[in-house]
């Protein structure tokens, strides 16, 4: 006979375990498959709460020494015990449901091979109200109960969470559903099939455990057992391929689950019904609150939706997110991040909406702020469609693939870092979303506000400055749009507890001279070493502008003007250059920095005129064909800048590459469209 399962029901005081257990007992006990355990407690029989066997402390101690209990424990000044006779019920195939303590789960799991923990949960404010309503505890005792912590259950134990945050009837229904779902168990079978990255589970059409055809469709299923789980798409096989009481897994999925064949596992459908209802409301154009976004985002992060449904949700979000929804999304996104924390009153950060070639001000700003003494753990992305990201440029000087411990170590040693964010897990949601949004061309600025600020919160920032470049080819098209977006950044930041200052900036032309990792790093070093010259005055000015705004948050500085003066002094004295060197060394300096590509080709003006426009997209495109950003030395070195007068045959820019074929391809692209527009007269700026 297949033994029954022990369901160990736990949860904090006030979660409503007794109410839910009473309801589940009334519904399930008459059928005979479930037995609801009666506990021995050193509490008077008429003390209220659950029905129990009242035992005085001396008798309880004698029973415990005599082996009367399957498990016993002490809590809240009382002792509790489950009778050892429950083992007989389990051996006879009956499922036992027992109210227990999280503190003894590990000990119970050592005695029984298959314990299922049912954790009843509710928000803290609901817990406090329920405890107070019982009238048995004072205010201090209520707070002590809420503050109580217990060790997590062992990894080998299956944990099922049941939310009891609504009516008792709904909580009872959720508990019953959880109990019944766990008893519908399938045996694992390893199929002699491989499906690569695609996770597949095969149900027999003649299954004696589940209605296999009901699981076909675009959704996925979870298979869980002994504290492990895996998610997969469903296929249905004709009788005989998979045993009627089993589920077959392809080789990769079976190995990922890492449980022996014939292990019983529970199948559950994903996503949750509440999540799907919220997702469909958003697709219809409704607004969602934070709780609804938590449901949807949680199921998306856990892979419970097919890409087609996630895409529908994202398209709807791209069309309509009000301010409250942006804040709700930011809060929810932050929950799914691996957060860094620093014991600092001010932890500075900076972000740019991007799209402007050469605007590598982060590598100047961070050393200035670090030289002043403020903590600035800057984490940045690599290039996606541009010729370089901050992480790509910094990687020409030092290691950037830092983990959380590395970031804390570097900031402790150098007061700042310039790291790649890929190893920090700041947004599990973005990893899922980007794979869908990029092919669809979705690029919602309002969605980005939630994404950016949630990642800043996860990175441990307290004060954030945002660069919002606008222009005809920038991500933000107009000054009015940038101003509105700045207001949204600052409003949402305040809602998250962040000090945020968002600044619209001119994004009509490239900033600096180099476009590509090594060329941009070269410009940074020239500014830090006081060798900026006129060609890099725009890069220097923009870096000082934003550094001054960050330093103004220091109470000892107090104003943007004083912050600007302090930034200039740190730059002029060489302190900022020394700070960058400390950061480079702490992160792991390259033995030899990567320099610009050794092969070059100069692109010349075909006629004379005034440079009226420089198409940053075209310039970045040529740099990418030359090999950037993967080839760190490849890129473009701008010679003629906006407003310059050039004669026919004068250089416009120089292409750098390390492979002749890349150089030829980039030169051919530049010959078709070099990105420069020349006017006969100096354009009038209105």
From TrEMBL:
<dbReference type="GO" id="GO:0006213">
    <property type="term" value="P:pyrimidine nucleoside metabolic process"/>
</dbReference>
<dbReference type="InterPro" id="IPR017872">
    <property type="entry name" value="Pyrmidine_PPase_CS"/>
</dbReference>
<dbReference type="InterPro" id="IPR035902">
    <property type="entry name" value="Nuc_phospho_transferase"/>
</dbReference>
<dbReference type="GO" id="GO:0004645">
    <property type="term" value="F:1,4-alpha-oligoglucan phosphorylase activity"/>
</dbReference>
<feature type="domain" description="Guanylate kinase/L-type calcium channel beta subunit">
    <location>
        <begin position="3"/>
        <end position="183"/>
    </location>
</feature>
<dbReference type="GO" id="GO:0009032">
    <property type="term" value="F:thymidine phosphorylase activity"/>
</dbReference>
<keyword id="KW-0067">ATP-binding</keyword>
<dbReference type="InterPro" id="IPR017459">
    <property type="entry name" value="Glycosyl_Trfase_fam3_N_dom"/>
</dbReference>
<dbReference type="InterPro" id="IPR008145">
    <property type="entry name" value="GK/Ca_channel_bsu"/>
</dbReference>
<dbReference type="InterPro" id="IPR036566">
    <property type="entry name" value="PYNP-like_C_sf"/>
</dbReference>
<dbReference type="InterPro" id="IPR000053">
    <property type="entry name" value="Thymidine/pyrmidine_PPase"/>
</dbReference>
<dbReference type="InterPro" id="IPR036320">
    <property type="entry name" value="Glycosyl_Trfase_fam3_N_dom_sf"/>
</dbReference>
<dbReference type="InterPro" id="IPR013466">
    <property type="entry name" value="Thymidine/AMP_Pase"/>
</dbReference>
<keyword id="KW-0808">Transferase</keyword>
<dbReference type="GO" id="GO:0006015">
    <property type="term" value="P:5-phosphoribose 1-diphosphate biosynthetic process"/>
</dbReference>
<dbReference type="Pfam" id="PF00591">
    <property type="entry name" value="Glycos_transf_3"/>
</dbReference>
<protein>
    <recommendedName>
        <fullName>Multifunctional fusion protein</fullName>
        <ecNumber>2.4.2.4</ecNumber>
        <ecNumber>2.7.4.23</ecNumber>
    </recommendedName>
</protein>
<dbReference type="Pfam" id="PF02885">
    <property type="entry name" value="Glycos_trans_3N"/>
</dbReference>
<dbReference type="GO" id="GO:0006206">
    <property type="term" value="P:pyrimidine nucleobase metabolic process"/>
</dbReference>
<dbReference type="InterPro" id="IPR013102">
    <property type="entry name" value="PYNP_C"/>
</dbReference>
<comment type="function">
    <text>Catalyzes the phosphorylation of ribose 1,5-bisphosphate to 5-phospho-D-ribosyl alpha-1-diphosphate (PRPP).</text>
</comment>
<comment type="similarity">
    <text>In the N-terminal section; belongs to the ribose 1,5-bisphosphokinase family.</text>
</comment>
<dbReference type="InterPro" id="IPR028579">
    <property type="entry name" value="Thym_Pase_Put"/>
</dbReference>
<feature type="domain" description="Pyrimidine nucleoside phosphorylase C-terminal">
    <location>
        <begin position="610"/>
        <end position="677"/>
    </location>
</feature>
<dbReference type="GO" id="GO:0033863">
    <property type="term" value="F:ribose 1,5-bisphosphate phosphokinase activity"/>
</dbReference>
<keyword id="KW-0547">Nucleotide-binding</keyword>
<dbReference type="GO" id="GO:0005524">
    <property type="term" value="F:ATP binding"/>
</dbReference>
<comment type="pathway">
    <text>Metabolic intermediate biosynthesis; 5-phospho-alpha-D-ribose 1-diphosphate biosynthesis; 5-phospho-alpha-D-ribose 1-diphosphate from D-ribose 5-phosphate (route II): step 3/3.</text>
</comment>
<comment type="similarity">
    <text>Belongs to the thymidine/pyrimidine-nucleoside phosphorylase family. Type 2 subfamily.</text>
</comment>
<dbReference type="InterPro" id="IPR000312">
    <property type="entry name" value="Glycosyl_Trfase_fam3"/>
</dbReference>
<dbReference type="Pfam" id="PF07831">
    <property type="entry name" value="PYNP_C"/>
</dbReference>
<dbReference type="GO" id="GO:0019634">
    <property type="term" value="P:organic phosphonate metabolic process"/>
</dbReference>
<dbReference type="GO" id="GO:0005829">
    <property type="term" value="C:cytosol"/>
</dbReference>
<feature type="binding site">
    <location>
        <begin position="11"/>
        <end position="18"/>
    </location>
    <ligand>
        <name>ATP</name>
    </ligand>
</feature>
<dbReference type="InterPro" id="IPR012699">
    <property type="entry name" value="PhnN"/>
</dbReference>
<dbReference type="InterPro" id="IPR027417">
    <property type="entry name" value="P-loop_NTPase"/>
</dbReference>
<keyword id="KW-0328">Glycosyltransferase</keyword>
